[in-house]
Automatic annotation (TrEMBL), chains A, B:
Residues annotated as domain HTH lacI-type: 9-64
The name this protein goes by in its record: Transcriptional regulator, LacI family
GO MF assignments: DNA-binding transcription factor activity; transcription cis-regulatory region binding
Top-level taxon of the source organism: Bacteria
Cross-referenced SUPFAM superfamilies: lambda repressor-like DNA-binding domains, Periplasmic binding protein-like I
Length: 341, 341
DNA sequence: TTGTAGGCGTTATCAC
DNA sequence: GTGATAACGCCTACAA
């Protein structure tokens, strides 16, 4: 049995079939379709249909033509928040006829650099980046090459790029206001190590400012969540310590909420009695105990906004470099039993 | 200020800088590096380094050279199970120097067809498919074009492709054995509509066979999970009906488990008293009530296996078409309080 | 071991 | 409106 390696049809074959030139066929599949005579259009449409023609994106990406490709760098694909944002990015891309190429860095700066180079080698037309480290050099190279960039949440050094994300300052204020209103007076703030990651920094700083301004007592645990021993220890101490003031744990993101919930469960703490509030809404928050109070981020909107920034950049691009901007979204509080005493 | 649209360096510039030919540079970046003299290698390495050269994947994907691109079609990116498998696929790709392009179809057959054509237009070297509908025609076209295909879980009509997934028959047997051993005698099987989706079919069929063989009473609710009213009604009826035999709900996948947990909570049912067992392990299953018993799938392994199949196909490809095969993985039971009375 | 020449499928330029 | 023709950056016979 012979190999049926049926070659993919090319623009040339369509041209022949439609008694037209390559140019016309190319035009038909580009923005310039209108410039063709109705008759020509029908012929090409029919021929393409018959032959099942599809432009080869690799080829069009080569010659000045656009690759129609957007790249996205995700720090942790298993984080539901990242996926939700990605979903928004994806939809916005689809609506614009763009394809999305997603790379997961698994929180590894080395992989991040590698992926960045990779995406560049595919000549993506824009890049949405949820960074782990600080690949300033690589990003700067991309910017100079003319690739529009959008950073999710964390802003990076000198890089000329838009930043889209949550209004972390107000988010933290909302959280603290709610906890205070519910009568919690001693707080434990739980976060992964902030290092350079700017949103974690912002949230942490605001936590400190916020408790000071409100006269609340507070402490902080900023260790890798993987170190469950340290975590259980910290939470255990916090909960067991004698005090007359109700206590609550404030989690900086979804992962922290998961870790805290596990720890509290292991300790046999009753949610609400020990308060619990997490940033990021998750499927299961309503199902655990009396429900976990969360601060939901408008994930889809964030994703869409990222693509919008990209496109705006591309339009205006070339001539003058627009100033880097910031787009901030507001969180919304979902009160549940974990902050009801 | 002039636009700094610094052109990306090409193979030609590297060649000049290294006093070599394009061919040699090309060889350096391909499998044939060893054929170059040590001196030549050093010169090229240095030049490439200096100029920050990276081969343009678009260009190399054009001429017979490989695109180094693997495509993946995901039915629902927000399903943690899909993401976990994707993570395995991703790792396997990385280890082989392949890039992964992921497309989410949002459970829409139309988008599925669209994305398939898209991936084809990028000349992917292999495709991992988690199908929603039955895009037989599109897939057949890809196969004939020589693209290796791997289907996740569901097998599709006549298409010549490997299938990787869970051993659903044994998984259901494990579930039923466990439920019976724990003393549950009446079961409600909860699934999304099976239609053509073969794993759902398989699981449903085995459920019917299994309860018959074991002398258990059973019924089935196969409606879209979005219809919460119907769902609550069904579960409410099931739970409230007078009977002397303990009852349990068996969920066909993670989404069903989520929906069932919500419904049971709304009904005020106590987990364990009403049994609950779900296929697919999720972050939160250990946290709800006494914990939800699950059947975990080896997701990473499934993803990796998919890529392995792809590669095997590509190696042996061309000459003779290997027979389509099936790779089955075993689930593992994680017993928790939801099936303890 | 190294280089030359042609072609991959498309788009851009410039004629007609 | 339409169509030759030259790039685009790389790979691959074929030569040397």
């Amino acid at each position: 049995m012979p190999t049926t390696t049926q070659q993919r049809t090319t623009i040339l074959e369509v041209a022949r079939e439609a008694r037209a030139s390559k140019t016309s066929v190319s035009r038909y599949f580009s923005e310039e379709r209108e410039r063709l005579s109705p008759d020509m259009q029908t012929r090409i449409a029919a021929a393409a249909q018959r032959l099942g023609y599809r432009p080869n994106r690799m080829a069009s990406g080569l010659k000045g033509g656009r690759s129609r490709l957007i790249g996205m760098l995700v720090a942790d694909i298993r984080n539901p928040f990242s996926v939700a944002v990605m979903h928004g990015v994806e939809q916005a891309c689809r609506e614009r006829g763009l394809s999305l190429m997603v790379c997961n860095t698994d929180n590894d700066p080395a992989q991040e650099r590698e992926h960045l180079a990779l995406l560049a080698s595919y000549r993506v037309e824009g890049l949405v980046i949820n960074a782990v480290g600080s690949p300033d050099r690589e990003l700067q190279a991309l910017v100079e090459q003319g690739t529009p960039l959008v950073l999710l949440e964390r802003e990076l050094g000198e890089v000329e790029a838009e930043v889209v994300g949550l209004d972390n300052v107000r988010a933290l204020d909302m959280a603290l206001n709610h906890l205070q209103a519910q009568g919690y007076g001693e707080l434990l703030y739980l976060s992964e190590p902030p290092e350079q990651a700017s949103p974690r920094q912002t949230r942490l700083t605001r936590f400190h400012q916020g408790i000071a301004a409100r006269g609340l007592a507070g402490e902080v645990h900023c260790r890798p969540l993987g170190d469950t021993e340290a975590l259980h220890h910290a939470i255990g101490d916090f909960v067991a310590r004698p005090s007359t003031v109700p206590r609550a744990v404030l989690c900086a993101n979804g992962n922290a909420t998961l870790a805290a919930t596990r720890a509290l469960r292991a300790l046999g703490a009753r949610l609400g009695e020990v308060g619990l509030l997490g940033i990021d809404e998750l499927d299961w928050c309503e199902l655990v105990g009396p429900g976990i109070t969360t601060l939901a981020q408008p994930t889809e909107a964030i994703g869409r906004a990222a693509v919008e920034c990209l496109m705006r950049r591309r339009e205006g691009g070339g001539e003058r470099i627009a100033p880097a901007r910031r787009v901030h979204f507001q969180a919304s509080l979902i009160p549940r039993g974990s902050t009801r005493r």
